[in-house]
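Hello,

I think I submitted the flavin-adenine dinucleotide job twice by accident. Can you confirm which output corresponds to this input? Input:
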Amino acid sequence: MSAKVESNVSLKPYNSFGIEATARHFAQATSDDEVRQLLAYAATEDLPALVIGGGSNLLLTQDVTALVIRMSSSGIRLLSDDGQRVVVEAEAGEPWHPFVQWTLEQGLVGLENLSLIPGTVGAAPMQNIGAYGVEIKDIFAGLTALDRQTGDLRDFSLEECGFAYRDSHFKRNPGRWIILRVRFVLSRVAPLHLDYGPVRQRLAERGIEQPTAKDVSETICSIRREKLPDPAELGNAGSFFKNPVISAVLADRIREQHPGLVAYPQLDGEMKLAAGWLIEQAGWKGYRDGDAGVHRLQALVLVNYGQATGEQLHALARKIQDDILERFGVELEMEPNLY
Ligand code: FAD
Ligand code: NAP
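Support: Only one job matched these inputs. Its output is below.
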C-alpha cells in the first residue's frame, strides 16, 4: 500500500477551529488508488472511515476512533474550451481559493464571488458552498464520486447532486460518497454578479467602473478579511448556523415585535432570515465563556480563543439555539459537521 497510515495523530492542524482531538488512525490520500487502498485497510481492520478535506467545516467533539482519510489529491485541467464556455476539472484535494485564483488567471469568469472560502474542491459540493449571491450550483458541470457501498465510480450531473441552500445529496447521505473530482462550467464572457451587499460600492470606491472578475475577487477578499476572523489567528469554522428560511407569515409576526428584522424574500415566497442579526439582537455578539465565544464583529461565527474543546463550543451553540427559539420562535440549524 502506497498510502501511509499513522497512529495517534493530532487533528489540531487539520481543523480550522484548532480543536485538540486525536485520530487513532490517520492517512492522506493522493489518488483514487490510495482512497481505495485506505478503504480496504479500514475494512480489514474493522474501522469506520472519516473523509476530510481542509477541516474548515468540522466540529470535533471527541477523539476520532475511525481511520481519518484526508483528501490530498491534486490536479487541475481544462476539459473543453469553445472560446466562450470552458469546462474545468479539479481533484478533490486541491485547496479551494488557489483553485479559484487559477481560474481567474486563465481569464475565466464564474468563481470570483466564491473567493477566499477555506477548504478543498472536493468538499465544496457537500454544502453547495455559497457567498455574495453565488453558489457552486450556478457554475457546476458535474463530479465523480466513489460509492463506498459498492466500490463503483459514479458521475453526478447537476440535477443528481440535489443542491439546495447550503445542502446537497451528499450532505443528506453522509459517509456514502467520496467526492474525487469536480467540474465547473466557466465563461470568458459571462456577466459579473455585483449586486450583493457592498460589492458594487466597494468597487466604485476603488475607482473601478468596468470591473473584471479579478477586480471582483480582490474586492470580495478585502471585505472578507475585514469582517471574518482568519482561522490561522483565531479558530473558527465560518458561519456556525445556517440562515433559517421560514414562512412569510412567521416573518411578519416576528417583524411586528422586531421592526428591524433582516429578511430576504425567496423565490418560493418564503423568507430567509439573517441568523447573525437574530443572534446579535439576542445579545450574544462578543460573548465569551472560557475559550469558547461568539466573534465580536460577526455574531454568526463561533470562535476558539485557544483551548476550547469541541464539546464547549457545541454547548455554547446549543445555548444560542435555545435562546433564539425562545425569543423569536425560530430554529437555528448548525452548519458545520459534528463528530
Ligand atoms: P471539511 O471541513 O474537511 O469537511 C466538510 C464535510 O465534508 C465533512 O462532513 C467531510 O466528511 C466531508 N468531505 C470533505 N471532503 C470530502 C470529499 N472529498 N468527499 C466526500 N466528503 C467530503 N462556506 C460557504 O459555503 N461559504 C462561505 O463563504 C464560507 N466561508 C468560510 C469562512 C471561514 C473563515 C471558514 C473557516 C469557513 C467558511 N465556510 C464557508 C465553510 C467551509 O469553508 C466550506 O464549507 C468548505 O467547503 C469546507 O471544505 P473543507 O475541505 O474544509 O471540508
Ligand atoms: P452579510 O453580507 O453581512 O449579510 C448577512 C446575511 O444576509 C448573509 O448571511 C446573507 O445570506 C444575507 N444577505 C445579505 N445580502 C443579501 C442579498 N442581497 N440577497 C440575499 N441575501 C442577502 O454576510 P457576511 O456574513 O458578511 O457574509 C458574506 C457572504 O459570505 C454571505 O453570502 C455568506 O453566506 C458568506 N459567508 C459564508 C460563511 C459560511 O461559513 N457559510 C462564512 C462567511 C461568509 P447568505 O448567507 O445566504 O448569502
